[in-house]
Amino acid sequence: MAETADVVVIGAGVIGTAAALELAKRGLRVVVADKSGGAGFGSTSASSAIVRFNYSTWDGVATAWESEHCWEKWAEHLEAPADTRLASFVRIGMVMLDVPPISNASVTALFDRAGVPYEVWDAATLAGRVPGIDTGRYWPPKRLDDEAFFAEATEQLGALFTPDAGFVNDPQLAAHNLADAARARGVVFRFHRVVTSIDQRAGRVGGVGLSDGTRIAAPVVVNAAGPWSDSINRMAGVGAEFTVRLRPMRQEVHQVSAPAGYNGPSGLGPAIADLDLGIYLRPVPPDFLLVGGTEPDCDPLEWIDDVDAADPRPTAARFQAQVTRAARRFPGLLVPNKPTGLSGVYDVTDDWTPVYDRTDLDGFYVAIGTSGNQFKNAPLAGRFVAALVDGVEGGHDHDRDPLTYTGEHTGHVIDLGAFSRKRQPNRNSSGTVMG
Questions:
Q1: Rg (Cα) of the chain, in Å, rounded?
Q2: Residue 131 in contact with residue 137, Cβ under 8 Å?
Q3: pTM of structure
């Protein structure tokens, strides 16, 4: 069986569906292939879907701030019919606790440039604005079996608060929304199909082969396969030119009851980035918390060789570590005996910055290394991919003269070279999911 298309997108997560939509908006015939049974069934469904702006680079901050405007105007972004069931953006604000690896001065300078509103809180303000929080400084994060874990704090923390941050209430539904918008523009989805080969002709991609025997001929292929992206790159014979490494990493997110007072009379409490203890928190309506980790040095990273064999169930050890840290920050939080939550597999780069780029195989593009901190940027990731395909296929030398993207909401110019496969790794990165 043979098909033809202008573009094949591999992966129907939030990044792949966003790319498919934007490519279709440019009049291209797009086919999306995914091994799962629907849009957003992979790592997207395990996302905490936090929308924040704390990044270590201008292009990271500008991308996140522009994307926030897309989430706020989600129906408009999708051009969705009035009766469409849509994911929604919940604005709760984010508290970024002070921590040595991240300079408030450098972050606020980027916020000032981008126009991101923020407030600088001292410890007293933090305690007043977030009821029940322990403002003690415990840096660096420690294992639970370290005697110093329960040592009393000798200093107090302040925080950086961004009132426009929040979360998307249903990440899988967001991917479905993008897929439906793409279908309305003629995009075809092939689910339950594994990509088994990348066709090449004279140094250029020629299409893909699927597990059902179908061959889709196309002059452009986009790898947006999430944690499977590295294996797709190897199939295409690309990656040797990359200056940043990509590897799949198993992660866990846990759900527990929120401590008393966290959710106030005016609504949900804020999301909290707590690198001081090595965790992040965000509320789940009506009265729960998601607790995730920020890869502290004291915890071993769980690299995965076989993504399909990764256990989706939370482990007792990881649950106890992350939730006990949350209870250290909120003494009123109870730590259940039984782990609750889920695990997913991240697709991460060395510097936690994604790769949106062409490759050395003409016509083969990548939107990878996105897991953990790029869900929020999916609306822009799709537009970046479309700009890259449009520019490079039109003859532009993106490696020598990087393309830019100008945000329609903020007007900020974003250098797509910041996400190059050949970039110098970001030395200002926190080395964590925070980027």
A1: 21
A2: no
A3: 0.96
